[in-house]
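User: structure tokens for Electron transfer flavoprotein-ubiquinone oxidoreductase, please.
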Amino acid sequence: MTELPERESLEIDVVIVGAGPAGLSAAIRLKQVNPDLSVVVLEKGAEVGAHILSGAVVDPIGIDRLLPDWREEEGHPFKTKVTADHFLFLGPAGSVRLPNFLMPPLMNNHGNYIVSLGNVCRWLAEKAEALGVEIYPGFAATEVLYNDEGAVIGVATGDMGIEKSGELGPNYTRGMALLGKYVLIGEGVRGSIAKQLIAKFDLSRDSDVPKFGIGIKELWEVKRENHKKGLVQHSFGWPLGMKTGGGSFLYHLEDNLVAVGFVVHLNYKNPYLYPFEEFQRFKTHPAIRGTFEGGKRLSYGARAITEGGYQSVPKLTFPGGALIGCSAGFVNVPRIKGSHNAVLSGMLAAEKIAAAIEAGRANDEIIEIENEWRKTDIGKDLKKVRNVKPLWSKFGTLVGIGLGGLDMWTNTLFGFSFFGTLGHSKTDAASLEPASQHKMIDYPRPDGVLTFDRLSSVFLSNTNHEEDQPVHLQVEDMALQKLSEHDIYAGPSTRYCPAGVYEWVEKDGKDTYVINAQNCVHCKTCDIKDPNQNINWVPPQGGEGPVYPNM
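Assistant: Done. Predicted tokens:
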């Protein structure tokens, strides 16, 4: 075995993994509290914002606290204020608009902004760097570093130039060790470092099971007469059945741009369900397709979404650091919003860590973060909606959404729930049922105008991976994949993946699992939904994956 060269190391006060809203807000807040602190942010994308994908309608509560004067500045990314809020229930051929007065007040989007969250992160990165934060894009954190007592003391970036065979290539470069007094993990949903830490420190011991959805999004430039700047439209129902959770959105931004997205809850049972094709079908609905007639599709992407909410948040702190943002699962599911809580969680962690460093502490557990988050606006936001997802899962779309709305009203008006706090039951992986219990779904062929195939869609995501490197989608037991994923579940990975990464092909008379890792858009769905938890997503070489321009 080739002996690896020693890593170079860099010692700083705080290491932050992930240049998303949580990580960047934490970096900014650390510098606001103590300008003398050294802060480094690692970002696996080729640039800040490259891997950021969200709807997104942003509640400005977090940005208002982080940067109170932002509205007075030129060049900020919050260009489109919400002017109209529509909720639709879709049937196969028609739709019903739900009256806004029936919606709980927390569902009201007036005062919020329609944005590209990637551009918000680019803007936050400029703010952070102006304060002296060092941001290293193109460097994926792949390993947690510990001291002899088992406390986290830093992270290491991935080695570059390893060939597919596992041998060190001619351009091999050893990763760097970043050592800090504290480490904040803001990788987003199902991050690989967060997974390691949750397992090592048993952070989910007292939490409910995590729950997820897959969100698929396109950005369109539409005809001027079809554009309604500031319109936010959410819908549920068709094409999903009443027992499959999910919904959709149309957000009208500036410059005739419309973001359209579709979310499927990953606790679905039918292995033949094809989230990407459900999204394409959704666009053909009479209430939807008119927006896109004569328009042009500009971008495509997909990302998993945390849906467990209040009861699924793991313990945030561990010796030497904390989880923040979507790594902790702070998405408000019915609002389809998480960036405001990500910003607030980054600020909370930053303030507690700055105080600890000021007190001479290092690499211990900042238990104050864990003890206080439920009392903050993050906890209050998530607690009011904690039963919406469990009710939807238990009773289906119509009854579940009705009961969820009632529960939000009682929480808002009276501060309590008739249901207490409901549990989530199974993991999303365990929710999948054998193919023998279901029928195949016949999806129409794409027309190339309104509906598309996956490969042409992935092209728009600007995804790129060097092919001569170890596959970053690790199947732990290939025999199990054939016996179970293929033989029992009819190969659901060939459908749930929104990038066409997985295929079962016949080779030499045998069914062979093919992994087209170069297509991967880093959504993490395979890591979540594989029925045997047999696929482990790890970062590829730093800087690889999608490069989303305005998502």
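User: Anything notable?

Assistant: Residues 388-420 form one domain.
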